[in-house]
Design a protein that fits this description.
The longest helix is centred in the middle third of the chain and has 42 residues. Helix content is about 55%, strand content about 10%. Strands 2-1-4-3 form a four-stranded mixed beta sheet. A three-stranded parallel beta sheet has the order 5-7-6. β8, α8 and β9 form a beta-alpha-beta unit. About 30% of the residues are buried. The chain is of the alpha/beta class. α2 runs parallel beside α4 and α13 crosses α17.
């Protein structure tokens, strides 16, 4: 724009007709190097001039030269873009910079192919179908206006994609408002952009967005793990009681014992899953569909599978103890402890949804899980041996032999679920 206003250039203290082709080549060379290029020009005021308006500097300017400003991408931003790509997140650059500048910075960030960039002028010539096609194929857009940003966000949403838009200026506000998640810059951002956005990035660092995605996926994973832990334990208890009623047998668990298992052990153990760290591959998964159910078919299968294992082991131990001539109190004490030990071993399975857990990191890699298991075992010792607890819950002390039998039966869930995970990884990779 400045070059268009110039008809002379400065050389050796004097002026001469401007060489537009030369300066355009210099602009392109600097922009291709990732620099933002400013043109500096002046116009000598006529003698006696005491007022200047905008029209006074629209033509007959003398070009002084060019200034290139370099704003290199942060190393953490390059890494964050790489992580987003691995996570199946498409990163699009929409900027007001020169087309060549945008392409060069895009190439440094691995956004786009480093060559293709559309300008706002080209977008103006596109109808909605053509723009929709361009929005799905091109990752770098330059010299755009607020209207272009809004149209691009709308076009990307039209492909069924969830759009997070970042911006800091007043002209970004319409697109921030339109996006599914508007993210304003907390340091450089204007108050208008912050009001229009759903989130404010306090450090103005793109890497924080990638970290937020990782944190969000971890929270979602841990929520599903907690549900996947609680439902089978409740299912196992329910099936055990239902099977006893169906067969006309004495209940292996009394209502107050079921309450103990739910209120003390299940809650204590399940709470540990809320603090699980991210799984190693959490940022290498493809995004889940926005309309995906919290519990899919595979999770329902896992819940039923584990419920049956717990029911079979608990009910089987109760029948076995009664067959050995044990009293109802002793048999029920064994049954309750078998159910709790099932939960302890299954908690280890649940730390990783699909990945194997039979390793040092899997079995001993979480202090919170180990602490929860330790607390659950302490509670069970009190439940089994403390006289007041025996009176309240109808339990009695058991010996080392019974504990060994309980551990052997309950540990089966650990190995059976790991075998099931192996089949899931091999034959149902889509479930992951």
């Amino acid at each position: 724009r400045v070059l268009e206003m110039c008809d002379h250039q400065l050389r050796d203290g004097g002026t001469e007709p401007i060489e537009r082709e030369h300066w355009n080549e210099q602009v392109d060379a600097m922009a291709a190097d990732g620099q933002r290029v400013l043109g500096l020009a002046y116009r000598a005021a006529r003698e006696g001039t005491d007022t200047i308006d905008a029209q006074s500097v629209q033509k007959e300017l003398v070009l002084l030269g060019l200034v290139g400003l370099i704003d290199p991408p942060r190393a953490e931003a390059i890494q964050a873009v790489r992580e987003c790509h691995e996570a199946g997140i498409r990163v699009v650059m929409i900027t007001g910079d020169h087309q060549l500048t945008a392409s060069a910075i895009g190439a440094a960030l691995a956004i786009g192919d480093g060559r293709t960039a559309l300008t706002g002028r080209e977008l103006d010539e596109m109808d909605d179908p053509a723009l929709s096609k361009a929005a799905s194929e091109v990752d770098v857009f330059a010299r755009v206006s607020p209207e272009h940003k809004l149209r691009l966000v709308t076009a990307i949403q039209g492909h069924g994609q969830v759009v997070a838009m970042t911006g800091d200026g007043v002209n970004d506000a319409p697109a921030l408002k339109r996006a599914d998640v508007g993210i304003a810059m907390g340091i450089k951002g204007t108050e208008v952009s912050k009001e229009a956005a759903e989130m404010v990035l306090t450090d103005d660092n793109f890497a924080s967005i990638a970290h937020a995605v990782e944190e969000g996926r971890t929270v979602y994973d841990n929520l599903r793990k907690a549900i996947m832990f609680i439902l089978p334990t409740n299912g196992g208890e329910g099936l055990t009681i239902f099977l006893a009623i169906l067969l006309g047998r004495t209940l292996p668990l009394t209502p107050v014992q079921v309450l103990w298992v739910n209120m003390i052990t299940a809650v204590t153990l399940a709470l540990a899953l809320a603090f699980e760290p991210p799984e190693q591959a959490v940022m290498k998964r493809k995004p889940r569909r926005p309309d995906a159910n919290l519990l899919d078919g595979y999770f329902i299968w896992r819940i039923g599978f584990v419920s049956v294992i717990m029911c079979a082991g608990t009910f089987g131990m109760f029948i076995y103890m009664r067959g050995q001539g044990a009293s109802e109190e002793l048999a029920r004490t064994v049954a309750v402890n078998t159910m709790v030990m099932f939960e302890v071993f299954y908690l280890l399975n649940t730390r990783f949804t699909f990945a194997p857990v039979l390793s040092i990191a899997g079995l001993f890699g979480s202090r919170r899980v180990l602490l929860a298991i330790g607390l659950a075992l302490v509670f069970q010792m009190l439940f089994t041996y403390l006289p007041v607890m025996q009176h309240l819950f109808g339990t009695t002390g058991i010996g080392v032999r019974e504990w060994l039998q309980i551990t052997a039966v309950a540990s089966s869930v650990l190995f059976l679920v790991e075998i099931e995970k192996c089949f899931a990884r091999r034959f149902a990779p889509a479930a992951q």
